[in-house]
Amino acid sequence: MSAAVTISIDAMGGDHAPDMVIDGLRMAHVRLPHVRYMLFGDQARIEPLLKRYPDLDAVCTIHHTTEAVSNDAKPGQVLRTGRRSSMWLAVDAVARGEAAGVVSAGNTGALMAVSKFVLRMLPGIDRPAIAGLFPTIKGETVMLDLGANVDCNANNLVEFAVMGEVFARAVLGLEKPTVGLLNVGSEDLKGNDAVKTAAATLRDSGLPIRFHGFVEGNDICAGTVDVVVTDGFTGNIALKTAEGTVRLYATCLKEGFKNSLLAKIGYLFARHALHKVKVRTDPRRYNGAMFLGLNGIAVKSHGGTDAFGFANAVGTAVDLVAHGYNDRIRREVEHLHAAESQTTRLAAGNL
Amino acid sequence: MSAAVTISIDAMGGDHAPDMVIDGLRMAHVRLPHVRYMLFGDQARIEPLLKRYPDLDAVCTIHHTTEAVSNDAKPGQVLRTGRRSSMWLAVDAVARGEAAGVVSAGNTGALMAVSKFVLRMLPGIDRPAIAGLFPTIKGETVMLDLGANVDCNANNLVEFAVMGEVFARAVLGLEKPTVGLLNVGSEDLKGNDAVKTAAATLRDSGLPIRFHGFVEGNDICAGTVDVVVTDGFTGNIALKTAEGTVRLYATCLKEGFKNSLLAKIGYLFARHALHKVKVRTDPRRYNGAMFLGLNGIAVKSHGGTDAFGFANAVGTAVDLVAHGYNDRIRREVEHLHAAESQTTRLAAGNL
To answer: Does the keyword Protease apply (chains A, B) (predicted)?
Structure first.
């Protein structure tokens, strides 16, 4: 962990960039003093912000560009015309080997398209996935895909299982993480063809994965498994449904505490405990969606996040680099394909 | 509302049946004294429970059968061998016109299969949907499908929109409910083919529906629209993810209040306000998944519910009957198909 790591930063991505980005890097720098940053964006706006924090300034280099990807830009349009944007140049720094990973709070679709185009896929992986961490009753769970692929076949789901399992081992430090496939019921007969075929592969292919079987929506927050695998359509909707539910609960609670004098007094006594609940379910702590399966580390910070959230996204990128995530994935994918070709040979032998 | 309504009850369905069922009917009877019940199940077990409550007993008739559908029975197996079960007989009472609707807390898959087989579909509806109510920041939202169909095409989604819209008008009493299609983003380009085609139909077919467009997972609890339409795979997972998230939040809160003396004192002052939050997010209030699109009213109560939840499911069935839900659906489906054939004629005229 003490070796110097360089992370490239899209300094113009996010609703409150570049101010939020620089504030976030300042918080990250306190926690991770060994990390250096390449900042891509408008020098005239970044430099004065950076000059306020000499300690941070000392580990940053600014790479000037006036172009930035807007929040409503279409991914195809960015691929055609965005090569001088801060986002593209930041991703390209990883492809050129100048940075070990990239962090952007910009347009998700554009960042995924540019990352796929510039970094390419890891050998043997068909599609990238967006992975994120969920708070659970037991701790935390990694879930993927959160929206990179709206249509997924069984093979994609199996690859997501491999990528998620390695993530749980490499970054969360779990020895034998359990993996579950998200479904509408836990019985074998339930679900669509993709999840049924993927479950059969995960169960029978001899992959070194502790496959729990199907899990349901309520198992995500219950922490039933360490890794929840699903397609990007369902995963994105589950993630946002959970966010909306937390907001509903918090709103009801706030209204409840305002509604009577007794409740207001109660709040004064209980506020420290309530603050801890807020911290534990704070979405900013879980900020930083990892783009897995690419030939390079890319982390998407939430577009509307603040400095605290951005600092956590930077921390996630550094974690992925420090734990050699992509090298591990490469090895596991070789295992997967070896297991698959063995299964194919065995099946052929049985004919 | 004062006319006598008869509801048939699967007295043996649910984890705590028949005790929970009878207790639930007793609560329902206080609220809905004009409703009569046909109880299907084991007379030797039901009769002694009923005798304790003479007022309720007076509006009930027991129809004896010793057979019951177990929680783990496969729907196909129940279709083949379950014709003497309490569930089947209760559904059949609706088909024979003896009851206006049926309520069961038994096996969901079996109840859907038996209801489809015995009641048949409403003319013009391709597939039934399971609909439920969600609490939102603004009030409540109806969402469907919650799990009847794991694979849905665009036509199914359009039919769900019609059924949900009529539900919101007939049962929730909304004049012009808004309808949204659940998707991974609100832009027209996002999503899979089914949601994109369904959105185009809802926008352009001239149906008398206030179509809002796409909504995302966080819009469900935000109450952005009155009706959220989705396929049964996504809907089931969103529902259970929301339930799991509420449970996580409530657990964190409980732990928070136990953790220090100050918090315990705070709880004493605030408990009335906290109780109101609990009531507002109590899943039992939203108990009663409506099976829509069938030629008869069928309501599924949660298998693990208590008497309070079961009473609410009975209330839902009575509401659907009282508001002539199925007659309204029949008329709307005629509109839908008239609009479709007009669109087809117009399109043919343009060739």
So the answer is: no
Report pLDDT for A342. 67
Q: Which residues of B touch A152 (CB under 8 A)?
A: none
A74 vs B: CB within 8 A: yes
Residues in CB range of A152: below 8 A, 6 or more apart: A127, A145, A160, A194, A231, A232
Q: Give the C-alpha separation, B105 to B12, whole Å.
A: 8
Contact B303, B107 (CB under 8 A): yes
pLDDT (mean) for A8-13: 97
Which residue bears the tokens 């398209």?
A: A113
Quick one: A210 and A229 in the same domain?
yes
Q: Is A174 left (phi over 0), alpha (psi -120 to 50) or beta?
A: beta
Q: How far is A181 from chain B (nearest CA, A)?
A: 12
CB B157 within 8 A of CB B229: yes
Q: How many CA atoms lie within 13 A of B137 on its CB side?
A: 19
The verdict on residue A318 lying in a domain is: yes
Give ipTM to 2 decimals.
0.85
| Total count of domains within chain B | 2
Q: What is the pLDDT of residues A207-232, one digit of tens each?
A: 889 999 999 999 999 999 999 999 99
Residues of chain B with pLDDT under 70: 1-3, 280-287, 340, 342-351
Give CA separation, B273 vs A80, A100, B139, B264, B310, in Å: 56, 51, 18, 15, 26
| Contact (CB<8Å) B281/A249 | yes
Buried b (16+ CB within 10 A) or exposed e, A195-228: bbbbbebbeeeebebbbbbbbbbbbbbbbbbbbb
Residues of B in contact with A150 (CB under 8 A): 184, 190-192
- Contacting residues of A for B280, CB less than 8 Å apart: 252
Within 10 angstroms of residue A55's Cβ, the number of other Cβ atoms is 10
Greatest CA separation for chain A? 77
CATH of the domain at B185: 3.40.718.10
Please give the Cα distance from B136 to B55 (Å, whole number): 36
Q: Residue B289 and residue A245: Cα distance in Å, rounded?
A: 19
Question: Is the minimum CB–CB distance between B180 and chain A shorter than 8 Å?
Answer: no
Judge if A167 and A218 occupy the same domain. yes
CB of B139 less than 8 A from some CB of A: no
CB contact under 8 A, A218 and B230: no
A224 vs A269: which has the higher pLDDT: A224
Crossing angle of the two packed helices A193-204 and A154-170, in degrees rounded to 10? 50
Domain that holds residue A58: 1-121+293-324
Positive/negative CA dihedral, A231, A234, A240, A242: negative
Q: What is the pLDDT of residues B205-252, one digit of tens each?
A: 888 899 999 999 999 999 999 999 999 999 999 999 998 888 888 888
Same domain for B205 and B263: yes
Element (H, E) at A6: strand A5-10
| A273 shares contact with chain B (CB less than 8 Å) | yes
